[in-house]
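seq as requested:
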Amino acid sequence: MNPDKQSHATTREERPFKHSTQIQIRFNDIDMLGHLNNSIYFSYFDIGKAEYFNTIRKTKNHWDKLDIVIANVDCDFLAPTYYTEAITVKTQITQVREKSFHVLQAMVNEATGEVKAVCRTVMVGFDPSTGTSMPLSKEWKDAITEYEGLQ
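struct tokens:
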């Protein structure tokens, strides 16, 4: 990464990303300035999270059995992304707690390695019957610790 592009919120990761998802940029994702519209970044990060979850859970997630939700999401836009670029979303979980886990993602130009945006998300265990947070399930904790090597 170019140090001039680095900010306090970039991917100063403690370990390399194990998971990446190639993203297809669609023509309608581009704004009048010729680059990716800011609102689209969140959709791309969601695609990365969904693929990551499918990978670590070793199955397709059953979205009708919702047991996690987003509590917070934050994105730093570091450089414009253009229609002609090959883009990858890299995803990792950096921290697991009793009721939550923290997701770090980077949108990267595949050819140059330039980081275009960094997203941090806090996901929490959720009980849909009460509409409240709950401890993360054993399945989530086991899947994360096995894949990421976290304790």
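Strands lie at 19-23, 68-77, 87-96, 100-109, 115-127, 132-133.
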